Amino acid sequence: MSEIARGLVPAPMATSESMAVSVPLWPLPAVAALLPALAVVLVLTLYTGQKGVFCNPFVQDCISISRMAKTGLANQVFRAGVLPGAALQLLTWMMAVHALAAAGLPRRQAKLMSRLGIAAAAMLVVYGSFLGSDGAAYQWLRHWGTATYFSGTYFAMLLFARSAERLHRSDGLAVPRLHLVLLQILLLFITCVCLVHASVLISGEKSWVHRLENLTEWWSALAMTLVFLTIADLWRRWGVRADVRAQHALPGQSPIAFRPE
Q1: Signal sequence span per UniProt (predicted)?
Q2: Secondary structure of residue 22 in the 3-state scheme
């Protein structure tokens, strides 16, 4: 296992009043990715079963994620997976700022990444909560809520990838080449998909706008799920853990510390 950081402050020795339980954090981004993905797969299964026709939304303009989860059981399943998943994504970005800062990244850069991810995840919580409602508020969230989530999460992931590569070059982190290449390919793919969508919007080809909007949503969601899973595997390799201490910790002592296994 590679060291997470040379300058990482070791956790203080536990005392009788400050016993610590060491918890690995890599499941956090993994579950944050898989919960919404599972919910979407289940909702898609419900939708195709209801319609009686197989729908492959990655190649067909058959349905958007939002529309298929708008009513009935599909809406409940969607919320049950996406809302806790969004909350876990928010926690992932909160923990990422501490992990990367501990590895030597300037805290200002780590905070920018974290704030973008937190804002995006919070918007997903709001949008998921209103999904299925009607009115101007929902229409605004349908357009700008999803755009804020995807763009905020994308830029947070981009900053994470750049930060990991920078720390790798400075020997602050050991990042396998496969993971760096995978992050670059996934983020470049999202960029290309969004540029194609934007070019169609600018061109005014109305027959393609709606179709590409749905395809962009599905392919971007898939790529972002894979990025979260890549982050989870990096955290596993780095041994990112939280030392959750007892209630009676020493004065001024942080309840969470990051250190390699």
Answers
A1: none
A2: strand
The answer to whether residue 4 sits within a structural domain is no
- Digit-coded pLDDT (tens) for 134-170: 777 767 777 778 889 999 999 999 999 999 999 888 8
**Is residue 166 one of the residues assigned to a domain?**
yes
Check: CB of residue 256 under 8 Å from CB of residue 22.
no
Residues 21 and 236: beta-carbon distance below 8 Å: no
pLDDT tens, residue by residue, 82-129: 999 999 999 999 999 888 888 888 888 888 999 999 999 999 998 888
- CA 140 from chain centre, in angstroms, equals 22
pTM: 0.84
54 is in which domain, residue-wise?
A: 24-245
Residue 69 belongs to some domain of the structure: yes
- The total domain count for the chain is 1
Query: What confidence score (pLDDT) does residue 14 get?
Result: 44
Residue 255 gets which letter from DSSP? Answer: S
Tokens of 2: 């590679």
How many H-runs (helices) and E-runs (strands) does the chain carry? 8, 2
CA distances for 77 relative to 11, 33, 74, 84, 255, angstroms: 41, 16, 5, 12, 34
Helix or strand holding residue 23 (H, E): strand 20-24
The more confidently predicted of residues 41 and 10 is: 41
Can you tell me the distance from the alpha carbon of 59 to that of 183, in angstroms, rounded to the nearest whole number?
A: 23
Any idea what the Cα angle at residue 12 is, between residues 110 and 96, rounded to 5°? 20
Which among 99, 219, 86, 89 is positioned nearest to 163, based on CA atoms? Answer: 99
Two structure tokens written together for 184 = 């670059």
Burial of 142 from C-beta contacts in 10 A (0-12 / 13-18 / 19+): middle
Question: Per the structure block, which two tokens stand in for 151?
Answer: 């763009």
Residue-wise pLDDT for 223-235, tens only, equals 999 999 999 999 9
